[in-house]
Design goal:
With 139 residues, this protein is mainly α. The protein is built from nine helices and no strands. Helix 4 crosses helix 6, helix 6 packs antiparallel against helix 7 and helix 8 packs antiparallel against helix 9.
């Protein structure tokens, strides 16, 4: 795996974007999203049906995400993190690797979500708190 600085340098010096993309396919984060989700899923040993229920999403959508056919939005990814009982660190890493902004405590909505993750609140309680605070809910 190339680090970000090496990859950036190679990109800037590459005369052919298509060749760069082909040569560096395994270095892009996108391919690891399914792996990261599967690792969290295996760690918590719940069924995909239970995960779908705890994440507030359909089983069909969940299977598409795990298969790499769907890229979840930031809010959907956060729903999955609550369903997987992910830590704050795991959530931040997953957001980063999916190309989404990490949770930022200076953002009121993100602060509520961070608090929920850190204090093992379930998705539905966090969503209720977001609604009561006039913040965009996660689903």
């Amino acid at each position: 795996m190339k680090n970000t600085d090496d990859l950036r340098q190679e990109l800037m010096e590459s005369p052919d974007l298509d060749q760069f993309l082909t040569d560096n396919q395994e270095d892009f984060d996108g391919g690891r999203i399914g792996e990261m989700l599967n690792a969290l899923f295996q760690k918590h040993r719940i069924s995909k049906a239970a995960l779908a229920r705890l994440s507030g999403m359909s089983e069909v959508y969940l299977h598409q995400v795990f298969a790499g056919r769907r890229n979840p939005s930031r809010s959907r990814l956060l729903c999955l993190c609550f369903g997987l009982d992910a830590t704050v660190e795991e959530t931040q890493l997953l957001l980063k690797h999916c190309g989404h902004a990490q949770l930022y405590p200076k953002n009121r909505r993100d602060a509520i979500i961070l608090y929920g993750l850190a204090n093992n609140m379930d998705l539905f309680d966090v969503n209720d708190k977001l609604f009561r605070e006039n913040e965009e809910t996660l689903y």
